[in-house]
Amino acid sequence: MAKRLRWLPAAPPLTWWMAALKTMLATTAVRGWLAAGFLAAPAGALAASPVPAPAAVATPADRTYENGTIFTADNQHANASALAIRDGIIVYVGNASGLGPYVGPKTTRIDLAGRFVMPGLVDGHLHPLSAGQSLLMCNLNYAALTVARLQQGVQDCLDRTAAREPDGWLEVVNWFQESMQPAGVRTSRATLDALHTKRPVIVRSSFGHTVLANSRALALAGIVKGSPDPTGGKIWRDADGTPSGLLEDAAFAVFDTLIPQPSAQDDVKAASAALAALRQQGVTSFLDAVGMPQDLAAFSALRKAGQLTARAHFAPPIEPSEAATLDAAIARVLALRAKFDDGALTVAPGITVRNAKLFLDGVISAPAMTGAVIDPYRRNSGTPTDPHWVEGTSHGPEVYFPPQALETALVALGRAGIDPHLHADGDAAVRAGLDAVAALRRSVPGVDIRPAIAHDEIVARSDYPRFAALGVIPVLSLQWGKPAGDTLGLTDYFGPERMRILEPAGFLDAAGARIAFGSDWPVDALNEWFAFKVGVTRTNAPDVAPQYRGRLGDDPGLTRDKVLRAATINAAYELHEDRETGSLEVGKFADLIVLDRDPLTVAADDIAATRVLETVVGGSVVYSASAPEAH
Ligand SMILES: [Zn+2]
Fold first, then answer.
1. Model confidence, pTM
2. I want to staple 506 with a disulfide (CB 3.0 to 4.6 A). Which of 281, 497, 531, 556 is the partner?
């Protein structure tokens, strides 16, 4: 009898290091069997029913799972009920009848009691260090706030840290600017100047593209009447030209030089906090979509300490200001790769630097409107209280990289073996990205480069098929595809036609695109399972305010199977680890999660409430929820 599944505390990740040598051996052995034809080829050509390897039968597994529903995410859409792991590698997937040869006296046998198992989540775009820091900072928690409540939240933080008067900076995070109440209410430096403090204060929007600064902070930053907008940024101004306090993108970079930055030790704490949150959500691999040197240093320190509990990929940014010095920028990315990349993937999680991040625009959200769009934003020719929306002339900013520079950058990255990870929110930015990838494909044909365009909040219909044709992966934050302050706030600016095609996950899928999921945490709170629900239903939570009920636009959404694949095998493909992870197949690393429900069959809204019971990375249990034994 298999023992009933007990959710014991996680095994210490150090077991990986004891297994490290064995791992090398096992991986080599697996490749040897593949070459010898004993096993079907992985990822892409696995036989319909798993064939136990003759060599595997001789040695029992370390751990087996049986009596569950196993979603394999393989190409054959195979389902299974049993699985065996040895040395961190999956050695059997099938039904219980084939499990016998893998069970030995020392095998840990898990009776799933009907529970659901799937590949560990691969999050194709997030910001783990700032997310971890935000867990430890003055945090507005993405709440929909009135001006008074925003002020109260910041004042509370000031009061808690009153010893830092009069000069200590206060940095506030996770301000959900787009959901300020009532809708359309404006904030400015005066909002913060009204607080009881002399300190410089900045409030960062959760979207990461806007900062609200008080007058003291603006003065210390030298942002004054007459300061020009920097490349890739914008200073909002009053009618007389005085900076209003709202700053977009590059316009607030100056604060990084003024606010004391976290120490390396603080960064390690933040990275550790992020990993803990990720384990609990079932994330076993991720891409740090702005992989700064300090991000790499922090996660690298955790890897060396045996505490890296997810496969960590990094995309160092190449800034628009570097468009004229691309060689140096790419050399900088390659130097980070040389310093931090752990090379070929191993059973124990490691670090790769094989992506580079390029911002092509800001965000389409009102009131920022820094997304680059093909048809102009509409504008209000009336007054705030008596609006009259008419055709406008603004297309948002120019795409942050001029076309020729973007082409040159992508071609050079392709030659260097670095995947471009492009931020493109508006349809003009998306098109610029696709055009540049077309140039990359022409100039560097036949190479295994996997360009990704993250966000894609609005895409011209005629561009949908280009994702598949050019092999571009849309990396989508599926939770955005619902009626909410940030989406419906665009209605007036976009007009009805564009509102129909906002957040086009289903449309891109129908056009053959290989969609990968990326949570963009901490742009939103980390809640992968809510995102998957929205990916299916295109609706907000059932108990949401009346104005946010119903579906968003005409997009049909994704099937549950497609959503789970977006967050497993497709994101693994994006990160070049689909031969090792992303599906549960013999020969792959044992990265898997056990859930408290079956997201393929529960009521769609209930997908959001999914609880991860166990997270396994490379065969080691890194997270285990305490749950009563099933009887
Ligand atoms: Zn992001």
1. 0.82
2. 556
